[in-house]
Amino acid sequence: MSSRLPSSNAPRLSTAPSSIKPRQLLSANLADLENLLRMTSVQAEAMRGLGAFHGGLLGCTRKPRAEEKWFERGLSRNGEAMM
């Protein structure tokens, strides 16, 4: 599996010494921005998946919790007192 992070031993062009031209600096900054946007997109997709998982868990607990409330009140499903 390849890493999405740039190698730490090579300096980014956006932080290199001022011997580069402004156009190169702009290009490097745009490349950094593109990488950040790509990673943000990956993180947003992961958060969306976690939200769906959480919603599924919440949906699974709805029926047992509703039955538990009826049982605590001493009522059957049709509202009559249980003995």
From TrEMBL:
Region Disordered, as annotated, extends over: 1-21
State the source organism's domain of life. Answer: Eukaryota
Alphabetical GO biological process terms: attachment of spindle microtubules to kinetochore
Which InterPro entries has this protein been placed in?
Hsk3 (IPR042332), Hsk3-like (IPR013183)
Residue stretches of biased makeup (Polar residues): 1-18
One GO molecular function term? microtubule plus-end binding
Q: Which GO terms describe its cellular component?
A: DASH complex
PANTHER family for this protein: DASH COMPLEX SUBUNIT HSK3 (PTHR28289)
Annotated protein name in UniProt: Uncharacterized protein
> Which organism does this sequence originate in?
Glarea lozoyensis (strain ATCC 74030 / MF5533)
Specify the taxonomic lineage.
Eukaryota, Fungi, Dikarya, Ascomycota, Pezizomycotina
